[in-house]
Amino acid sequence: MILAIELSQDTITLELSDKGRAVDIETAKYYHDIDDVLITSIDRLLKRNKIDIKSLKSYRILGNLGSDSTSYKIAQAFVEGLKVR
Protein backbone atom coordinates (compact mmCIF):
# COMPACT_ATOMS: atom_id res chain seq x y z
CA MET A 1 0.00 0.00 0.00
CA ILE A 2 1.32 3.45 -0.98
CA LEU A 3 0.39 6.78 0.59
CA ALA A 4 0.73 9.79 -1.70
CA ILE A 5 0.45 13.27 -0.20
CA GLU A 6 -0.21 16.04 -2.70
CA LEU A 7 0.26 19.60 -1.52
CA SER A 8 -1.07 22.77 -3.09
CA GLN A 9 -1.33 26.31 -1.73
CA ASP A 10 -4.31 25.62 0.57
CA THR A 11 -5.35 22.02 -0.11
CA ILE A 12 -3.86 18.67 0.81
CA THR A 13 -4.84 15.38 -0.81
CA LEU A 14 -3.94 11.98 0.62
CA GLU A 15 -4.33 9.00 -1.68
CA LEU A 16 -4.01 5.35 -0.76
CA SER A 17 -3.14 3.08 -3.66
CA ASP A 18 -2.42 -0.60 -3.97
CA LYS A 19 -0.87 -2.29 -7.00
CA GLY A 20 -1.27 0.83 -9.12
CA ARG A 21 -4.94 1.50 -8.42
CA ALA A 22 -6.40 4.10 -6.11
CA VAL A 23 -8.06 2.65 -3.02
CA ASP A 24 -9.31 5.89 -1.45
CA ILE A 25 -8.69 9.65 -1.48
CA GLU A 26 -9.08 12.24 1.26
CA THR A 27 -8.91 15.97 0.44
CA ALA A 28 -8.89 18.79 2.97
CA LYS A 29 -8.18 22.50 3.13
CA TYR A 30 -5.53 23.85 5.47
CA TYR A 31 -4.27 27.22 6.56
CA HIS A 32 -1.68 27.13 9.35
CA ASP A 33 -2.83 23.74 10.64
CA ILE A 34 -1.30 21.34 8.12
CA ASP A 35 -0.01 19.06 10.88
CA ASP A 36 -3.51 18.63 12.35
CA VAL A 37 -5.01 18.15 8.89
CA LEU A 38 -2.44 15.46 8.02
CA ILE A 39 -3.11 13.53 11.22
CA THR A 40 -6.91 13.66 11.02
CA SER A 41 -6.92 12.88 7.28
CA ILE A 42 -4.73 9.79 7.62
CA ASP A 43 -6.83 8.62 10.56
CA ARG A 44 -10.02 8.96 8.49
CA LEU A 45 -8.49 7.12 5.53
CA LEU A 46 -7.23 4.22 7.62
CA LYS A 47 -10.44 3.84 9.63
CA ARG A 48 -12.69 4.12 6.60
CA ASN A 49 -10.75 1.39 4.77
CA LYS A 50 -10.02 -0.73 7.87
CA ILE A 51 -6.29 -0.56 7.16
CA ASP A 52 -3.54 -0.74 9.77
CA ILE A 53 -0.76 1.84 9.58
CA LYS A 54 1.73 -1.03 9.25
CA SER A 55 0.33 -1.93 5.82
CA LEU A 56 1.71 1.33 4.37
CA LYS A 57 4.94 0.36 2.61
CA SER A 58 5.83 3.48 0.63
CA TYR A 59 5.22 7.22 0.77
CA ARG A 60 5.33 10.02 -1.80
CA ILE A 61 5.03 13.77 -1.43
CA LEU A 62 3.79 15.51 -4.56
CA GLY A 63 2.90 19.07 -5.44
CA ASN A 64 4.23 22.30 -6.81
CA LEU A 65 5.22 24.02 -3.55
CA GLY A 66 8.89 23.06 -3.68
CA SER A 67 11.00 21.26 -1.12
CA ASP A 68 11.90 24.52 0.67
CA SER A 69 8.32 25.34 1.64
CA THR A 70 7.22 24.93 5.24
CA SER A 71 4.25 22.78 4.18
CA TYR A 72 6.54 20.38 2.33
CA LYS A 73 8.89 20.13 5.32
CA ILE A 74 5.98 19.42 7.69
CA ALA A 75 4.66 16.72 5.33
CA GLN A 76 8.15 15.24 5.10
CA ALA A 77 8.45 15.12 8.92
CA PHE A 78 4.98 13.52 9.06
CA VAL A 79 6.08 10.79 6.64
CA GLU A 80 9.28 10.18 8.62
CA GLY A 81 7.15 9.80 11.75
CA LEU A 82 4.98 7.21 10.00
CA LYS A 83 8.07 5.23 9.03
CA VAL A 84 9.19 4.95 12.69
CA ARG A 85 6.02 3.26 13.95
Please give a handful of descriptors for the protein shown:
single chain, 85 residues, alpha+beta, four-stranded mixed β-sheet
Textual characterization of the structure:
The chain is an alpha+beta fold. The protein is 35% helix and 34% strand. The chain is built from 2 helices and 4 strands; from the N terminus they run βββαβα. The chain has helices spanning 34-48, 70-84, and strands at residues 2-7, 11-18, 21-29, 58-63. The protein has a 4-stranded mixed sheet with strand order 3-2-1-4, covered by helices on one side. The protein starts with a strand and ends with a helix. The mean pLDDT is 92.
| Elements, N to C (H/E) | EEEHEH
| Alpha-carbon Rg, integer | 12 Å
Instruction: Detail the poorly predicted runs.
Output: none
Largest sheet: 4 strands, mixed
* Amino-to-carboxy terminus distance: 16 Å
Kindly state the number of beta strands: 4
Number of helices: 2
Biggest sheet strand order reads 3-2-1-4
State the helicity in percent bands: 25-40%
Mean pLDDT equals: 92
Structural class: alpha+beta
Q: Hey, roughly how much beta strand do the residues contain?
A: 25-35%
The best one-word shape is globular
In summary, what is this structure?
The chain has 85 residues and is of the alpha+beta class. The protein has two helices and four strands.
Write the layout of secondary structure elements.
Elements lengths: L1 E6 L3 E8 L2 E9 L4 H15 L9 E6 L6 H15 L1
Parallel strand pairs: 1-4
Antiparallel strand pairs: 1-2, 2-3
Helix pairs in contact: 1-2
